[in-house]
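Appendix B: a complete holo record

For completeness, this appendix reproduces one full record from the ligand-bound portion of the collection. The bound molecule is flavin-adenine dinucleotide. The inputs are the chain sequence and the ligand SMILES; the output is the full three-dimensional arrangement of the complex, encoded as structure tokens. No fields have been trimmed.
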Amino acid sequence: MDSAKNLSVAVIGAGPVGLAAAAHLIERGLEPLIFEAGPSAGAAIEQWRHIRLFSPWRYNLDAAAVRLLEASDWESPRPTALPYGGELIDNYLTPLAALPAISPRLQTGARVISVTRAGMDKTHTRGREGTPFIVRVEHGDGETRDHTVAGVIDASGTWSSRNPLGTSGLPAIGEDSAAGRISSPLPDVIGRDRKVFAGRRVLVVGAGHSAANTLISLADLAKDEPDTRILWAVRGASADKVYGGGDADGLPARGQLGARLRRLVEAGTIELHTGFGIASLTPLASHVTVESVDGRILEADVVVPCTGFRPDLDILRELRLNLDPAVEAPTELGPLIDPEFHSCGTVPPHGATVLAHPDKDFYIVGMKSYGRAPTFLLATGYEQVRSVAAALAGDREAADTVQLELPETGVCSSDAGTSCDVPAAADGLVAETSGGCCGAPEPVLVGFPTGLAHGRSGDNN
Ligand SMILES: Cc1cc2nc3c(=O)[nH]c(=O)nc-3n(C[C@H](O)[C@H](O)[C@H](O)COP(=O)(O)OP(=O)(O)OC[C@H]3O[C@@H](n4cnc5c(N)ncnc54)[C@H](O)[C@@H]3O)c2cc1C
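The structure of the chain with flavin-adenine dinucleotide bound, as generated:
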């Protein structure tokens, strides 16, 4: 960083990648200032704490964070075990956030609402590079304050901006006013959110593993709560992509999941509506009606939007960004992860150079760096922030020496002709297979119930 060497580096978001960024900055002798919108570290993962990760601990821990933790009485989890989201928080993020090295530098309930250069809007070029950034934050005390920093690492993820239900990338007409009848993208159907779904008409929208697992969980719920009615809308002409290869699937567990879903549809437990691009929602007193572009109407009590996520770029409006026009990832990265052409995360290791923007010393990392592509892996994010911290510290050689020990990738080429959605078991949460996929290591336990990080699975197609 050329500018103001004594200023902090703002880190937006205290998810796994934001906290890892902070750990790397500290190792580099830089001063992180972490803003987390939620009440605690891992606030986004908190929303899916009931879901098991498909990648084991060994790939979910950042090296610099572990070095900090190891100086405390932290007990490292078994490297081969597969944590639930909740365990990632309880056994890793919470202890990390509580360390004396991190805790005083972390502000929770602090939502970043915009980032700019001090005293200059986006149109000003002269002297831009040496000018500090202003990070505007809405704090928990109700006040909005500007923080002056030397660099910014945006690790705010994509959880808070799901894709709309509307078929053209826009919210369906009436979607906003129907918000009260739209659940979170990954509800805990069997547990925490059971009451919302038991005995209700539930419409699941989307054609990925998120949808598949929610549907299967709903079918389990319906066994105990027989009045539960399960509707499933996909934009495409069939749900074959979600069913996968059935018994012949190269990934047996994925096959099991798809086969079970197909059986549930064929048995009438799940009512499938194909070619159902959503045009509008009309909230009524007792339910919501959902109309397709060709005029069909479904009635539901609750709608589950398994439509994927996109980055919130609004907060970055005053910065000069370098983003792929389709994927909204950094320009060089975009074509490598475009879900239209890549079924999996066959992404070469990359760091500060690939992630750089015209506004020097500003980086988007982690889930958000993949824009609309759903293939991000934590291991990738940890290498990103190692490199970015090195770049901010002026260690160009370390920044450019990017290495990534990604797990085996058995079926992960765009030529494989198969989606790299991670298989999930019949229970909808945990599965086992021997082939690596999307960075899932061997032996692979890949209960990825979402499709969010794999394949083009989050969308309604
Ligand atoms: C269900 C699911 C399962 C997954 N399983 C795996 C897996 O097995 N292996 C794997 O490698 N990856 C997995 N991923 C993908 C990815 O690793 C995770 O999404 C991971 O949480 C991304 O980390 P992150 O730090 O980039 O973002 P997040 O974890 O989303 O953290 C972002 C943080 O920023 C905060 N924030 C957002 N906006 C603001 C703002 N304006 N101001 C301040 N703070 C803000 C949020 O509250 C949040 O705490 C999974 C993803 C999902 C959704």
